Amino acid sequence: MEFIPYGRQNITEKDIDAVVNVLKSDYLTQGPKVPEFEQAIKNHCVVRHALAMNSATSALHVACLALGVGEGDIVWTTPITFVASANCALYCGATVDFVDIDPQTYNLSVKSLEQKLKEAKEQDKLPKVVIPVHLCGQPCDMEAIHALSQKFGFSVIEDASHAIGGSYQNKPIGNCQYSDITIFSFHPVKIITTAEGGVATTNNDELAQKMDLLRSHGITRDTDLMTHEPDGPWYYQQIDLGFNYRMTEMQAALGVSQIQRLQSITESRHKIAQRYNEQLASLPVVTPFQIQESYSGLHLYVIRLKLDEIKPTHLEVFQSLRAANIGVNLHYIPVHLQPYYQKNFSFQIGDFPQAEQYYREAISLPLYPDLTEEQQDYIVETLEGILKND
Ligand SMILES: *Cc1c(COP(=O)(O)O)cnc(C)c1O
Fold first, then answer.
1. Residue 68 and residue 209 in one domain
2. For every one of its 390 residues, what pLDDT tens digit does the chain have, with 9 covering 90 and above?
3. Do residues 268 and 249 both lie within one domain?
4. Beta strand segments in the chain, E
5. Cβ–Cβ contacts within 10 Å for residue 64, how many?
6. CATH code of 307's domain
7. How many domains would you assign to the chain?
8. Which residues pair with 354 in a beta bridge?
9. Does residue 280 sit in the same domain as residue 145?
10. Model confidence, pTM
11. 93 and 226: one domain?
12. Ligand 1 binding pocket mutation candidate from 51, 53, 60, 161 (most atoms within 8 A of CB)
Protein backbone atom coordinates (compact mmCIF):
# COMPACT_ATOMS: atom_id res chain seq x y z
CA MET A 1 0.00 0.00 0.00
CA GLU A 2 1.30 3.46 -0.92
CA PHE A 3 1.73 5.96 1.92
CA ILE A 4 -1.59 7.25 3.30
CA PRO A 5 -1.24 10.68 4.96
CA TYR A 6 -3.50 11.69 7.87
CA GLY A 7 -4.83 14.67 5.95
CA ARG A 8 -4.59 15.91 2.41
CA GLN A 9 -5.94 18.70 0.23
CA ASN A 10 -8.55 18.04 -2.46
CA ILE A 11 -7.61 19.92 -5.65
CA THR A 12 -9.71 19.94 -8.85
CA GLU A 13 -9.02 21.25 -12.37
CA LYS A 14 -11.31 24.17 -11.50
CA ASP A 15 -9.08 25.06 -8.54
CA ILE A 16 -6.02 24.97 -10.79
CA ASP A 17 -7.71 27.14 -13.45
CA ALA A 18 -8.73 29.66 -10.78
CA VAL A 19 -5.13 30.07 -9.63
CA VAL A 20 -3.71 30.18 -13.16
CA ASN A 21 -6.24 32.86 -14.16
CA VAL A 22 -4.98 35.08 -11.36
CA LEU A 23 -1.40 34.60 -12.53
CA LYS A 24 -2.45 35.86 -15.96
CA SER A 25 -4.31 38.84 -14.48
CA ASP A 26 -3.14 42.30 -13.36
CA TYR A 27 -3.14 41.64 -9.63
CA LEU A 28 -1.17 39.02 -7.74
CA THR A 29 -1.93 40.76 -4.46
CA GLN A 30 -4.35 43.48 -3.29
CA GLY A 31 -6.79 42.82 -6.16
CA PRO A 32 -10.41 41.67 -6.36
CA LYS A 33 -9.99 38.03 -5.28
CA VAL A 34 -9.39 38.63 -1.58
CA PRO A 35 -12.64 40.63 -1.18
CA GLU A 36 -14.41 37.93 -3.21
CA PHE A 37 -13.14 35.22 -0.87
CA GLU A 38 -14.11 37.32 2.14
CA GLN A 39 -17.60 37.75 0.71
CA ALA A 40 -17.91 33.99 0.22
CA ILE A 41 -16.92 33.42 3.86
CA LYS A 42 -19.40 36.08 5.02
CA ASN A 43 -22.17 34.42 3.01
CA HIS A 44 -21.34 30.99 4.35
CA CYS A 45 -21.00 32.07 7.98
CA VAL A 46 -23.77 34.69 7.93
CA VAL A 47 -21.46 37.20 9.60
CA ARG A 48 -20.82 40.92 9.10
CA HIS A 49 -17.06 40.95 8.51
CA ALA A 50 -14.45 38.51 7.22
CA LEU A 51 -10.76 39.46 7.02
CA ALA A 52 -8.45 37.20 5.05
CA MET A 53 -4.81 36.89 6.13
CA ASN A 54 -1.74 34.86 5.28
CA SER A 55 -2.37 32.33 8.07
CA ALA A 56 -4.63 31.55 10.99
CA THR A 57 -1.63 32.28 13.22
CA SER A 58 -1.54 35.86 11.87
CA ALA A 59 -5.30 36.15 12.27
CA LEU A 60 -5.05 34.98 15.90
CA HIS A 61 -2.33 37.55 16.52
CA VAL A 62 -4.28 40.54 15.18
CA ALA A 63 -7.47 39.26 16.84
CA CYS A 64 -5.70 39.39 20.22
CA LEU A 65 -4.32 42.86 19.46
CA ALA A 66 -7.73 44.13 18.33
CA LEU A 67 -9.18 42.95 21.64
CA GLY A 68 -6.51 44.95 23.47
CA VAL A 69 -4.35 42.05 24.68
CA GLY A 70 -1.02 43.37 25.93
CA GLU A 71 1.52 43.25 28.69
CA GLY A 72 0.07 42.27 32.04
CA ASP A 73 -2.88 40.46 30.47
CA ILE A 74 -3.63 36.76 30.69
CA VAL A 75 -5.13 34.66 27.89
CA TRP A 76 -6.55 31.21 28.49
CA THR A 77 -6.89 28.36 26.01
CA THR A 78 -6.90 24.57 25.96
CA PRO A 79 -3.67 22.55 26.27
CA ILE A 80 -4.87 20.19 23.51
CA THR A 81 -4.38 22.45 20.52
CA PHE A 82 -1.75 23.53 18.05
CA VAL A 83 0.76 25.88 19.69
CA ALA A 84 -0.50 28.85 17.64
CA SER A 85 -3.67 29.10 19.79
CA ALA A 86 -1.45 29.99 22.75
CA ASN A 87 1.48 31.72 21.03
CA CYS A 88 -0.77 34.54 19.76
CA ALA A 89 -1.10 35.88 23.31
CA LEU A 90 2.67 35.78 23.85
CA TYR A 91 3.23 37.80 20.65
CA CYS A 92 1.23 40.59 22.35
CA GLY A 93 3.32 40.47 25.53
CA ALA A 94 0.60 38.75 27.54
CA THR A 95 0.92 35.48 29.45
CA VAL A 96 -0.94 32.23 28.84
CA ASP A 97 -2.72 29.78 31.07
CA PHE A 98 -4.72 26.68 30.22
CA VAL A 99 -8.03 25.08 31.09
CA ASP A 100 -8.09 21.28 31.18
CA ILE A 101 -10.15 19.36 28.62
CA ASP A 102 -13.46 17.57 28.87
CA PRO A 103 -12.69 13.81 28.76
CA GLN A 104 -15.58 13.16 26.38
CA THR A 105 -15.33 15.95 23.77
CA TYR A 106 -11.60 16.74 24.25
CA ASN A 107 -12.56 20.42 24.07
CA LEU A 108 -11.83 22.89 26.85
CA SER A 109 -14.02 21.81 29.80
CA VAL A 110 -16.64 24.42 30.65
CA LYS A 111 -16.85 23.04 34.18
CA SER A 112 -13.10 23.52 34.69
CA LEU A 113 -13.34 26.93 33.07
CA GLU A 114 -16.02 28.06 35.53
CA GLN A 115 -14.06 26.71 38.50
CA LYS A 116 -10.85 28.38 37.34
CA LEU A 117 -12.65 31.68 36.73
CA LYS A 118 -13.99 31.68 40.30
CA GLU A 119 -10.51 31.12 41.68
CA ALA A 120 -9.00 33.70 39.32
CA LYS A 121 -11.54 36.28 40.40
CA GLU A 122 -10.55 35.89 44.03
CA GLN A 123 -6.89 36.33 43.11
CA ASP A 124 -7.67 39.21 40.76
CA LYS A 125 -6.15 37.27 37.85
CA LEU A 126 -9.06 36.99 35.44
CA PRO A 127 -8.22 36.40 31.76
CA LYS A 128 -8.65 39.17 29.21
CA VAL A 129 -9.47 36.67 26.46
CA VAL A 130 -10.40 32.99 26.39
CA ILE A 131 -9.70 31.04 23.19
CA PRO A 132 -11.80 27.88 22.92
CA VAL A 133 -10.69 25.54 20.11
CA HIS A 134 -13.23 23.41 18.24
CA LEU A 135 -10.98 20.35 18.31
CA CYS A 136 -11.36 18.04 15.30
CA GLY A 137 -14.23 20.32 14.21
CA GLN A 138 -16.47 19.51 17.16
CA PRO A 139 -17.95 22.81 18.39
CA CYS A 140 -17.29 23.84 21.98
CA ASP A 141 -20.22 24.63 24.25
CA MET A 142 -20.23 28.24 23.08
CA GLU A 143 -23.48 29.28 24.73
CA ALA A 144 -22.09 28.36 28.16
CA ILE A 145 -18.70 29.95 27.43
CA HIS A 146 -20.45 33.12 26.29
CA ALA A 147 -22.54 33.22 29.49
CA LEU A 148 -19.32 32.95 31.53
CA SER A 149 -17.71 35.72 29.46
CA GLN A 150 -20.61 38.02 30.39
CA LYS A 151 -20.40 37.08 34.04
CA PHE A 152 -16.62 37.38 34.41
CA GLY A 153 -15.93 40.03 31.78
CA PHE A 154 -13.59 38.47 29.23
CA SER A 155 -13.60 38.39 25.42
CA VAL A 156 -13.86 35.21 23.35
CA ILE A 157 -11.93 34.21 20.21
CA GLU A 158 -13.08 30.92 18.70
CA ASP A 159 -10.16 29.06 17.16
CA ALA A 160 -12.19 27.33 14.45
CA SER A 161 -9.14 26.22 12.46
CA HIS A 162 -10.70 22.71 12.37
CA ALA A 163 -14.29 23.70 12.05
CA ILE A 164 -15.36 25.51 8.87
CA GLY A 165 -18.36 23.69 7.44
CA GLY A 166 -19.62 22.71 10.88
CA SER A 167 -22.51 24.21 12.78
CA TYR A 168 -23.59 24.84 16.36
CA GLN A 169 -27.27 25.17 17.31
CA ASN A 170 -27.99 25.02 13.58
CA LYS A 171 -25.91 28.09 12.83
CA PRO A 172 -22.65 27.96 10.88
CA ILE A 173 -19.40 28.06 12.84
CA GLY A 174 -17.94 31.51 12.25
CA ASN A 175 -21.16 33.45 12.71
CA CYS A 176 -19.84 34.78 16.05
CA GLN A 177 -23.16 34.62 17.86
CA TYR A 178 -21.32 33.68 21.06
CA SER A 179 -17.89 35.17 20.44
CA ASP A 180 -16.12 38.39 19.49
CA ILE A 181 -14.01 36.88 16.72
CA THR A 182 -13.72 33.49 15.00
CA ILE A 183 -10.56 32.27 13.26
CA PHE A 184 -10.31 29.77 10.39
CA SER A 185 -7.18 28.13 8.96
CA PHE A 186 -6.74 27.09 5.34
CA HIS A 187 -3.52 25.11 5.65
CA PRO A 188 -3.60 22.12 3.23
CA VAL A 189 -4.40 19.55 5.90
CA LYS A 190 -7.44 21.55 7.05
CA ILE A 191 -10.97 21.24 5.65
CA ILE A 192 -10.52 23.56 2.66
CA THR A 193 -7.27 25.21 1.68
CA THR A 194 -5.59 28.32 0.30
CA ALA A 195 -2.11 26.71 0.72
CA GLU A 196 -1.34 29.03 3.64
CA GLY A 197 -4.10 31.30 4.84
CA GLY A 198 -6.54 32.27 7.54
CA VAL A 199 -9.64 34.37 8.08
CA ALA A 200 -11.00 36.28 11.06
CA THR A 201 -14.77 36.83 11.21
CA THR A 202 -16.61 39.25 13.49
CA ASN A 203 -19.88 41.14 13.78
CA ASN A 204 -18.13 44.04 15.52
CA ASP A 205 -17.33 46.98 13.18
CA GLU A 206 -14.61 48.38 15.43
CA LEU A 207 -12.78 45.06 15.77
CA ALA A 208 -13.00 44.55 12.01
CA GLN A 209 -11.49 47.97 11.38
CA LYS A 210 -8.64 47.32 13.82
CA MET A 211 -7.83 43.93 12.31
CA ASP A 212 -7.98 45.42 8.81
CA LEU A 213 -5.40 48.04 9.79
CA LEU A 214 -3.15 45.60 11.62
CA ARG A 215 -2.97 43.09 8.76
CA SER A 216 -1.46 45.75 6.49
CA HIS A 217 1.15 47.80 8.38
CA GLY A 218 -1.37 49.90 10.33
CA ILE A 219 -1.76 51.95 7.16
CA THR A 220 -5.02 53.55 6.05
CA ARG A 221 -6.28 55.40 2.98
CA ASP A 222 -9.60 56.12 4.69
CA THR A 223 -9.72 59.93 5.17
CA ASP A 224 -12.13 59.50 8.11
CA LEU A 225 -9.35 57.76 10.05
CA MET A 226 -6.60 60.30 9.21
CA THR A 227 -5.39 62.98 11.56
CA HIS A 228 -5.69 65.65 8.85
CA GLU A 229 -6.77 66.12 5.24
CA PRO A 230 -4.66 64.13 2.73
CA ASP A 231 -1.57 65.94 1.38
CA GLY A 232 -2.52 64.69 -2.11
CA PRO A 233 -3.77 61.70 -4.09
CA TRP A 234 -0.71 59.63 -3.11
CA TYR A 235 -1.41 60.06 0.57
CA TYR A 236 -1.85 57.39 3.22
CA GLN A 237 -1.23 57.41 6.93
CA GLN A 238 0.24 54.88 9.32
CA ILE A 239 -1.93 55.24 12.39
CA ASP A 240 -0.98 52.02 14.21
CA LEU A 241 1.92 49.54 14.20
CA GLY A 242 0.77 46.71 11.95
CA PHE A 243 2.26 43.85 9.95
CA ASN A 244 2.23 42.46 6.45
CA TYR A 245 -0.24 39.62 7.01
CA ARG A 246 -1.99 39.95 3.65
CA MET A 247 -3.33 37.00 1.69
CA THR A 248 -2.32 36.86 -1.98
CA GLU A 249 -4.75 36.82 -4.91
CA MET A 250 -3.69 33.27 -5.88
CA GLN A 251 -4.52 32.05 -2.39
CA ALA A 252 -7.87 33.85 -2.35
CA ALA A 253 -8.79 32.50 -5.80
CA LEU A 254 -8.07 28.98 -4.57
CA GLY A 255 -10.21 29.70 -1.51
CA VAL A 256 -13.11 30.98 -3.61
CA SER A 257 -12.96 27.83 -5.70
CA GLN A 258 -12.62 25.53 -2.67
CA ILE A 259 -15.41 27.03 -0.58
CA GLN A 260 -17.89 26.18 -3.33
CA ARG A 261 -17.28 22.52 -2.48
CA LEU A 262 -17.32 23.00 1.29
CA GLN A 263 -20.58 21.15 1.79
CA SER A 264 -19.64 18.14 -0.32
CA ILE A 265 -16.18 18.03 1.26
CA THR A 266 -17.69 18.07 4.76
CA GLU A 267 -20.22 15.42 3.76
CA SER A 268 -17.53 13.12 2.44
CA ARG A 269 -15.60 13.56 5.70
CA HIS A 270 -18.73 12.54 7.60
CA LYS A 271 -19.23 9.51 5.37
CA ILE A 272 -15.68 8.33 6.04
CA ALA A 273 -16.02 8.99 9.78
CA GLN A 274 -19.32 7.08 9.89
CA ARG A 275 -17.60 4.14 8.22
CA TYR A 276 -14.78 4.27 10.79
CA ASN A 277 -17.36 4.41 13.60
CA GLU A 278 -18.95 1.19 12.36
CA GLN A 279 -15.73 -0.63 11.55
CA LEU A 280 -14.03 0.27 14.83
CA ALA A 281 -17.01 -0.39 17.09
CA SER A 282 -15.79 -3.82 18.16
CA LEU A 283 -12.14 -2.81 18.67
CA PRO A 284 -10.61 -1.76 22.01
CA VAL A 285 -10.64 1.93 21.09
CA VAL A 286 -12.83 4.92 21.97
CA THR A 287 -14.32 6.47 18.83
CA PRO A 288 -15.15 10.19 18.66
CA PHE A 289 -18.10 11.43 20.67
CA GLN A 290 -20.60 13.66 18.88
CA ILE A 291 -22.43 16.28 20.92
CA GLN A 292 -26.08 17.03 20.19
CA GLU A 293 -27.24 20.18 18.40
CA SER A 294 -24.03 20.45 16.46
CA TYR A 295 -22.44 19.25 13.24
CA SER A 296 -18.69 18.78 13.22
CA GLY A 297 -16.45 20.11 10.46
CA LEU A 298 -14.58 16.82 11.06
CA HIS A 299 -11.07 18.00 10.39
CA LEU A 300 -9.70 15.03 12.34
CA TYR A 301 -10.78 11.54 13.34
CA VAL A 302 -9.14 10.82 16.71
CA ILE A 303 -9.38 7.45 18.45
CA ARG A 304 -8.21 6.71 21.98
CA LEU A 305 -6.65 3.34 22.73
CA LYS A 306 -8.09 1.36 25.64
CA LEU A 307 -4.62 0.63 26.92
CA ASP A 308 -5.75 -1.68 29.73
CA GLU A 309 -7.40 -3.99 27.15
CA ILE A 310 -4.44 -4.36 24.79
CA LYS A 311 -0.88 -5.70 24.94
CA PRO A 312 1.01 -3.20 22.75
CA THR A 313 1.78 0.27 24.08
CA HIS A 314 0.51 3.50 22.53
CA LEU A 315 3.94 4.07 20.99
CA GLU A 316 4.04 0.53 19.59
CA VAL A 317 0.60 0.86 17.99
CA PHE A 318 1.62 4.19 16.50
CA GLN A 319 4.93 2.86 15.18
CA SER A 320 3.32 -0.26 13.70
CA LEU A 321 0.76 1.86 11.82
CA ARG A 322 3.49 4.10 10.47
CA ALA A 323 5.52 1.02 9.49
CA ALA A 324 2.48 -0.12 7.49
CA ASN A 325 2.59 3.18 5.55
CA ILE A 326 -0.33 4.67 7.42
CA GLY A 327 0.46 8.30 8.23
CA VAL A 328 -1.22 8.45 11.62
CA ASN A 329 -0.54 11.51 13.72
CA LEU A 330 -1.13 12.81 17.23
CA HIS A 331 -3.17 15.97 17.78
CA TYR A 332 -1.81 17.30 20.05
CA ILE A 333 1.14 17.27 22.43
CA PRO A 334 -0.21 19.27 25.40
CA VAL A 335 1.06 22.82 24.88
CA HIS A 336 1.97 23.30 28.56
CA LEU A 337 4.48 20.45 28.23
CA GLN A 338 6.35 22.08 25.34
CA PRO A 339 9.86 23.01 26.54
CA TYR A 340 9.29 26.70 25.73
CA TYR A 341 6.20 26.80 27.94
CA GLN A 342 7.74 24.76 30.74
CA LYS A 343 10.82 26.94 30.81
CA ASN A 344 9.14 30.35 30.60
CA PHE A 345 5.91 29.74 32.51
CA SER A 346 6.91 26.89 34.81
CA PHE A 347 4.15 24.52 33.77
CA GLN A 348 4.68 20.97 34.96
CA ILE A 349 3.61 17.42 34.25
CA GLY A 350 0.37 16.88 36.14
CA ASP A 351 -0.97 20.42 35.70
CA PHE A 352 -3.74 19.32 33.32
CA PRO A 353 -4.34 15.62 33.95
CA GLN A 354 -7.18 15.07 31.46
CA ALA A 355 -5.12 16.57 28.65
CA GLU A 356 -2.12 14.44 29.60
CA GLN A 357 -4.24 11.28 29.78
CA TYR A 358 -5.64 12.06 26.32
CA TYR A 359 -2.10 12.51 25.01
CA ARG A 360 -1.13 9.03 26.24
CA GLU A 361 -3.99 7.40 24.28
CA ALA A 362 -4.87 9.47 21.21
CA ILE A 363 -4.13 8.67 17.57
CA SER A 364 -5.47 10.58 14.54
CA LEU A 365 -6.44 8.22 11.73
CA PRO A 366 -6.29 9.38 8.09
CA LEU A 367 -9.35 11.44 7.10
CA TYR A 368 -9.68 13.42 3.89
CA PRO A 369 -12.16 13.46 0.98
CA ASP A 370 -9.99 11.43 -1.39
CA LEU A 371 -9.38 8.58 1.07
CA THR A 372 -10.72 5.48 -0.71
CA GLU A 373 -12.78 2.71 0.88
CA GLU A 374 -9.98 0.32 0.00
CA GLN A 375 -7.46 2.48 1.89
CA GLN A 376 -9.85 2.79 4.81
CA ASP A 377 -10.38 -0.99 4.97
CA TYR A 378 -6.62 -1.43 4.94
CA ILE A 379 -6.23 1.03 7.83
CA VAL A 380 -8.89 -0.71 9.92
CA GLU A 381 -7.57 -4.21 9.20
CA THR A 382 -4.02 -3.16 10.01
CA LEU A 383 -5.11 -1.51 13.25
CA GLU A 384 -7.15 -4.57 14.22
CA GLY A 385 -4.16 -6.83 13.62
CA ILE A 386 -1.92 -4.61 15.77
CA LEU A 387 -4.41 -4.35 18.64
CA LYS A 388 -5.07 -8.11 18.72
CA ASN A 389 -1.39 -8.88 18.72
CA ASP A 390 -0.53 -10.64 21.97
C1 LIG B 1 -3.60 24.80 12.04
C2 LIG B 1 -4.00 25.47 13.29
C3 LIG B 1 -3.63 26.78 13.60
C4 LIG B 1 -2.67 27.57 12.76
O5 LIG B 1 -3.10 27.68 11.45
P6 LIG B 1 -2.10 28.28 10.33
O7 LIG B 1 -3.07 28.69 9.26
O8 LIG B 1 -1.22 27.15 9.93
O9 LIG B 1 -1.39 29.41 10.91
C10 LIG B 1 -4.11 27.35 14.76
N11 LIG B 1 -4.90 26.67 15.59
C12 LIG B 1 -5.26 25.39 15.35
C13 LIG B 1 -6.14 24.70 16.31
C14 LIG B 1 -4.80 24.75 14.20
O15 LIG B 1 -5.13 23.48 13.98
1. yes
2. 899 999 999 999 999 999 999 999 999 999 999 999 999 999 999 999 999 999 999 999 999 999 999 999 999 999 999 999 999 999 999 999 999 999 999 999 999 999 999 999 999 999 999 999 999 999 999 999 999 999 999 999 999 999 999 999 999 999 999 999 999 999 999 999 999 999 999 999 999 999 999 999 999 999 999 999 999 999 999 999 999 999 999 999 999 999 999 999 999 999 999 999 999 999 999 999 988 889 999 999 999 999 999 999 999 999 999 999 999 999 999 999 999 999 999 899 999 999 999 999 999 999 999 999 999 999 999 999 999 976
3. no
4. 49-53, 74-77, 95-98, 129-131, 155-159, 167-168, 171-172, 181-185, 198-202, 219-220, 237-238, 285-286, 294-295, 301-305, 362-365
5. 25
6. 3.90.1150.10
7. 2
8. none
9. no
10. 0.97
11. yes
12. 161
CATH number at residue 156: 3.40.640.10
Q: Which domain holds residue 35?
A: 4-259
Give yes or no: residues 98 and 192 share one domain: yes
For residue 299, the ligand 1 atom closest to its alpha carbon is: 15
Which ligand 1 atom sits closest to the C-alpha of 81?
13
Closest-lying ligand 1 atom to the alpha carbon of residue 60: 10
Q: Which residues line ligand 1 (CB under 6 A)?
A: 55-57, 81-82, 84-85, 133, 159, 161-162, 185, 187, 198
φ/ψ of 294, rounded to 5, equals: -150, 160
The phi, psi pair for 54, rounded to 5°, reads -80, -10
How far is it, in rounded angstroms, from Cα 280 to Cα 322?
18
